[in-house]
Design brief:
The structure is a single chain. This protein has about 150 residues and is an alpha+beta fold. It has a domain at about 35-65 and about 95-150: Translation Initiation Factor IF3, CATH 3.30.110. About 20% of the residues lie in helices and about 40% in strands. It is built from 3 helices and 10 strands, in the order ααββββββββαββ. The protein is flat.
C-alpha cells in the first residue's frame, strides 16, 4: 500500500504541475507584386488559359532552398577539403531565407532567355525540405510556368 501511495504521489508531482505547450493560432497573408514585370512589358498570369493568341516557347521551372550564402572568389564558389577529406562549398555567415519573389525572378529570367515575353499557368509551392547533411528542415519554394510569346 505504501508503494502504491508513493507511486501516486510521485506521479502527481511530476505530471500535475507540468506546463502544456500548445500551438497558438497563426494567421497571415502573402502577395507577390507583378507590377515591375508588367511595366517592363512582361506578361504574368496564374491562369492556364488566356484570351489572346500566343506562341508557346517552353516550360520553365525554378527552386530555391534557404541556406547560408556561398562564398565566392573570382566568380566561382570557394571549395574546401580541410576537415572531411570531401570537397564542400564554403559559406558565409549570411543566411538567405527562401522567398516566392526569388522564384518569380528566376522564372522570368529563364523565360526571357528563351525569347518569351510572358508566362502563364504560374504555380508556386512552398514547404520544408529536409537536408540530410545538416539534419535540418529548410524553407523552400519551387515554381513552374509556360513561357510564351504574345
Amino acid at each position: 500500500m505504501r508503494k502504491l501511495l508513493l507511486f501516486v504521489t510521485i506521479t502527481f508531482l511530476l505530471t500535475g504541475c507540468a506546463n502544456v505547450l500548445r500551438t497558438p493560432v497563426l494567421q497571415g497573408s502573402d502577395s507577390i507584386d507583378y507590377s515591375k514585370y508588367l511595366n517592363d512589358g512582361f506578361f504574368i498570369t496564374e491562369a492556364n488559359s488566356v484570351s489572346f493568341t500566343y506562341k508557346p516557347i517552353s516550360s520553365v521551372s525554378a527552386y530555391f532552398v534557404s541556406g547560408y550564402e556561398i562564398a565566392m572568389k573570382d566568380g566561382k564558389p570557394v571549395m574546401n577539403t580541410t576537415y572531411t577529406g570531401y570537397e564542400y562549398v564554403v559559406t558565409t555567415e549570411k543566411y538567405i531565407l527562401a522567398k516566392k519573389e526569388y522564384i518569380i525572378e528566376a522564372l522570368v529570367k529563364e523565360a526571357k532567355d528563351k525569347g518569351a515575353n510572358g508566362i502563364i499557368n504560374l504555380q508556386i509551392k512552398g514547404g520544408p525540405l529536409f537536408d540530410p547533411v545538416t539534419m535540418k528542415l529548410n524553407d523552400s519554394y519551387s515554381g513552374s510556368a509556360m513561357a510564351i510569346f504574345k
